[in-house]
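Work Package 3 (structural annotation) set out to generate three-dimensional models for the target panel prioritized at the project kickoff. During this period the team completed the workflow that converts sequence records into discrete structure tokens, so that structures can be stored uniformly alongside our sequence database. As a representative example, we reproduce one entry of 278 residues exactly as it appears in the project archive.
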Amino acid sequence: MDLAAVFNIAPDDAAALIDDLTNIVARASALIRAMSPATVGRQFKADRSPVTAADEASEAAILQGLDTLLPGVPVIAEEKSGREAAPALDGSFLMVDPLDGTKEFLAGRDEFTVNLAVIAGGKPIAGIVAAPARGQVWRGIVGRGAERLRLSDIGADRGVAIRTRRWPAQGAVAVMSRSHLDPDTEAFLARLKPVTRAESGSAIKFCQVADGTADVYPRLATTCEWDVAAGHALVVAAGGVVATPQGEQLIYGRVEKDFRIPAFIAWGDPEKAATLAR
């Protein structure tokens, strides 16, 4: 199902809807940029992960914007999910991570992102990933392509089309989590040798795969759907594939699993993915 069909709009209006959604993400990004990591209010959730006033302000702005733009469409958002029961997800819905990479934000790094995805039939069909500190945003609609642009250029038709690349004969790059490198990931990377490793936090790794500056992003430890959904849509829109390590489809909206994803691999080259699926 495509974006136009999900929201019962004309195909040409899908681009305008993505602009509107990107503007919501941009406003949230501006709120985060206005806060200092050194002084921002913070606390720890039950799992000991940090949450800050920047996370909360970003999510509140996004939820307000989505309620105005798409009233009645269910939204799953990270911080809200910890406070309220999930709404019914019988059809399409939106998934939000208001500040992905809170640890990076607090450390003063520029890798943190704001993520927003449209889910239909359990699949991400559109994704927006903004990097507030870099002033950039990547976005894509599955079946219609992907692009990178400046947050300041939304709606100005200044985006640069991006695509994943074929697996290179040499110089392949694997991006991975700075905080969650584990033995399974080490074993997977050993199968890909030779490959250059690049560590970072947040969904920025999906953006690198989508724009062809990286080739694979393995995450072989449990994570949450809102960490993955927007980047998943972006990579697929740019020509790649995101699947389980066995090559199976990821399903989103699994309330009964607390929106957990056990593991995934994002590939720029679907043919390479097919040869390595186990």
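The mean pLDDT is 92.
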